[in-house]
Every structure is written in C-alpha cells, then in structure tokens.
Specification:
Radius of gyration: 19 Å
Order of helices and strands: EEEEEHEEHHEEEEEHEEEEEEEE
Shape: globular
Largest sheet: 9 strands, antiparallel
Mean pLDDT: 95
Oligomer: single chain
Number of helices: 4
Distance between the termini: 21 Å
Helix content: under 10%
Strand content: over 45%
C-alpha cells in the first residue's frame, strides 16, 4: 500500500477554541479548548514533516525556532521552518513576523522582560486564502481568531520569548541566541504552474502546493513521502478514501481522484517540485 490515512491527535491548549472547523468535532462546552490537531504517522517522530490545524482563540506566545544546525547542537533531529495557509480569520485578526525595524538582541530581551516586545513586532492583517512562510529564526506570533493549517519540519521545539504574563516557561537565552532581530522579508508565492495547481513555496525544507479537484497522477522519488491534506471535498488515492479534516501520506506513483470543488494541500520534503 502506497497511501496511508493518518491518525489525528487533538491537542488541548489554553489559547484554543470550542468551535473548530468543518470535519472536526467540537469539544464539549465544559471540556478544555482544542488548540491544535496533528496528523501523525505510526512512527510519529521519524517523518521530516508534520501537518497541523491551529485554532487560536487568543494570541499565541511570541516565539521563534532554531535552524537545523542550532537544533542539532541542542540534541534535536532538525530545526523548524514552518508555513501557514489561512482558512478563516476574524475581522482585524493579525500575525506578527519579524520586527518593525532593525533592533538588537539586547533590546529584544528588555522587550521580552517588560512586555514591550509585542509592540516591537510587525503585525499584519490576515484573511482567508493568505499564505505565510516563517523560516527558522524568525520572531513571530499568531493572533487570535484565526483558523489555519501549518506545515512544518517535524520537531516539537519552540522557544517562547513572551507569553502575556502566563506561568508557562520562557526560553530567552535559547530563543534570543537564534533570533533574527530584523524586519521580515516575505517569500513570494511561486504561483500557478498548471491549471488547478499552484505552488505556494518550494524549498529548501519542503514544497507546498494547492490543488483543485479532479484526477491527477502523483509520482514521488524513491524515499520521499508526500502529505495530502484536503481542506474541502473528498476523494480516493490509491484505493484509500479521504475527506476534508483528514490527511493521507503517499509514496511512489499513485492515482488521485478528488471530487469537483475539492481544495487540497500537498506537501513533501525537498527543494524541487515534482
């Protein structure tokens, strides 16, 4: 079998929500809020990528993630580049990427200690359909009222710089050591490469494409795994049925059928699109 339907892991978070997204059951009103849903392979720690839905009801911490080299020096398998596809956003919802102007790590430390780091960041409004790529080292924060899919290198390694006075652990020394204290330069979306196929980003850590419904052949190189995440619709790949709210990994050469009106994300490691 070259296609595998992944298990879902519901992650409770204090900043999460009780109203999730079509395809996911809402938690009971008296249950803890759900902040994330992860799609996990049987060997959850091994794959290069991890796909998540995020449901922030309030702002996440100001944070960053290390590069591969910095993470491996700390004993982790890889660093963390990540990107976000915005599915929905309340009016006025924002995400911060980088600083408003060049600064220093010393100034960032002071800002993290007194809370002014929030005002040092470059907050941008977001809306459904937006795409943002956050390379390792980028100081960032996701605001509340957003539903998004995150594609990331598979490592659970976050350095929190500021968390709005909560009692969660901060990691100022580690986080500031790898932080880029400069304004963020966004990567352009590559764009549509064929009808119904748009490349959102390519390399160096992963490629992410967005596909419309229809039939297509997928051919991955030996040893490369692809993650098919349907945002809307249903279909079959290599005999495995899927629907929105699920995720399927594929390897090798497979045939995909997606119902008309489907909206799919397809991610795989590497720096060249298939």
């Amino acid at each position: 079998m070259t296609a595998t339907l992944l298990a879902t892991k519901r992650v409770e978070k204090p900043w999460g929500r009780h109203d999730l997204w079509p395809g996911f059951a809402n938690p009971a009103p008296d249950a803890p809020p759900i902040g994330e849903i992860w799609f996990q392979t049987p060997d959850a720690g091994t794959p290069e990528l991890l796909i998540k839905y995020l449901f922030p009801g309030e702002s996440l911490s100001v944070q960053d993630h290390p590069t591969d080299a910095a993470a491996q020096a700390a004993g982790y398998p890889r660093g963390k580049d990540e990107c976000w596809v915005i599915l929905a956003a309340d009016p006025g919802a924002t995400i911060a990427l980088g600083t408003k102007e060049p600064t220093t790590r010393a100034a960032l430390r002071k800002g993290a200690e007194d809370g002014s780091i929030v005002d040092m960041l470059d907050w941008k409004p977001v809306k459904a359909g937006d795409f943002l790529y956050s390379p390792a080292g980028t100081i960032h924060a996701i605001g509340g009222g957003i539903t998004l899919v995150e594609v990331q290198q598979n490592v659970d390694l976050t350095y929190r710089l500021y968390d709005y006075g909560s009692d969660r652990e901060l990691h100022l020394d580690q986080g500031l050591a790898i932080a880029d204290p400069n304004p963020f330069t966004p990567q352009p979306i590559v764009g549509e490469v064929s009808e119904g196929r748009t490349v959102l980003c390519e390399g160096p850590k992963f490629v992410l494409e967005r596909w419309a419904g229809g039939d297509r052949d997928i051919a991955l190189p030996d040893g490369v795994t692809g993650w098919l995440t349907p945002l809307k619709g249903e279909g079959v790949v290599d005999g495995v049925a899927w629907r929105a709210g699920e995720c399927v990994t594929v390897t090798g050469a497979v045939r995909l059928h997606a119902a008309a009106g489907s909206d799919l994300l397809f991610a795989y490691p590497g720096d060249k699109r298939i």
